């Protein structure tokens, strides 16, 4: 028998590590989108990458012989697809036609708070008050940096509204996908969401390509490839597995580091100006992230509260034992002991 606290500690560490890996992959999404939409139609960038990732998802699901989701899980996968397959890529592609990637990082700073809010509504988690305080401190640190650094200027424009819509839908997709990954595993959750979306994304991408034939230099295609393979596919393997193991609200706070990383990529790849104050902000943000990872949730065992509608799914015969694929055992999800 394994001690319940050992399970909790292992899940917390593994979840944080997987979440950090996912954030690292996502942190270059805005710069890559910025490069791609300079030469490619934004609708093609938004939905074409989902088509490419959907084809990779079909290959992966066939390779592991993944069982089909239940009817209830298909409905929840539709929520995931709305948020992360359609909503976030579409609205960020539209926004970054006129906005810089550094400016987009400002609005992305709201994502951890929105994800935590949806974790309460969709994943049935109840973080402790101290958790909210640490998360709010990290958000203030990020926003203070980006405001004082001059990354934001001028009045609220259409690009800002697009970015706000992108972040709201992304937070919903993160929370729902993180909760569903407790049943399906992180890799299968994003793969089934991509497959579910494929008829829609293929139709939109095809229309965009027909109206604006995709001719672009190599850097634009490199950005598009990154969005397809990392931002829309592999990044979610780690991210959803991390949310499932460590808790949506808690692991979601690791995203506080994403705006700083995005600005670093923007300076390195796009030569956008990022002041030295980024170092101080990064230290403050990482301290707040560390605090949220050390705080337990509102349940007695520190694990995310299991939704009443959660039903475990038995992995297929060729299911991977990798941490992003293997669903957590029912006893561990419920906070009990396990053989």
General description of the model:
With 339 residues, the chain is mainly alpha-helical. The chain has one domain. It is 71% helix and 0% strand. The chain has 14 helices and no strands. The chain has helices at residues 4-26, 29-37, 42-64, 71-95, 101-108, 111-121, 129-148, 158-184, 186-211, 218-246, 248-252, 258-270, 277-294, 330-333. Helix 2 packs antiparallel against helix 10 (218-246), helix 3 (42-64) packs across helix 10 (218-246) and helix 8 packs antiparallel against helix 9. The N and C termini lie close together (5 Å). The relative contact order is 0.23.
Largest sheet: none
- Class per helix and strand makeup: mainly alpha
Low-confidence stretches: 1-7, 296-321, 330-339
The arrangement of helices and strands along the chain is: HHHHHHHHHHHHHH
How much of the residues is beta strand, in percent?
A: under 5%
The proportion of residues forming helix, as a percent range, comes to over 70%
Can you give the mean pLDDT? Answer: 78
Overall spatial form: globular
Query: So how many helices?
Result: 14
Distance between the termini: 5 Å
Rg, Cα atoms, Å:
19 Å
Strand runs, count: 0
Overall domain count:
1
Primary descriptors:
single chain; 339 residues; mainly alpha
What are the SSEs and their pairings?
Layout (H helix, E strand, L loop, with lengths): L3 H23 L2 H9 L4 H23 L6 H25 L5 H8 L2 H11 L7 H20 L9 H27 L1 H26 L6 H29 L1 H5 L5 H13 L6 H18 L35 H4 L6
Concise account of the structure shown:
By secondary structure, the protein is mainly alpha-helical.
